[in-house]
Design a protein that fits this description.
The protein is mostly helical. It has 2 helices and no strands. The radius of gyration is 27 Å and the shape is elongated.
Length: 80
């Protein structure tokens, strides 16, 4: 390995370290936002919250579908 190749590799390593630091900063900002807005402290907690919200969404959609069918049954579609 010559000096030029060593310097090229060293510069790439420095660039990657900077990118990693920026990415870690972004992750920390996201986690802070989650904590403030949703009281979520980790990615695992976010996943659990997402699953709970999806379950709630599914239940509500089933209710809406049931109400829609009930409403259709109450209407006299022959007169519309």
């Amino acid at each position: 390995m010559d000096t030029q190749e060593f310097e090229r590799i060293r510069k790439k390593i420095e660039i990657l370290k900077e990118k990693r630091a920026k990415a870690n900063g972004v992750i920390e900002n996201i986690l802070e936002t989650w904590k403030k807005q949703y009281n979520i402290n980790s990615i695992e907690e976010a996943q659990e919250q997402l699953e709970a919200l999806q379950d709630e969404y599914d239940v509500n959609n089933k209710k809406i579908d049931g109400w829609y069918e009930e409403l259709k049954g109450l209407c006299n579609w022959g007169l519309v």
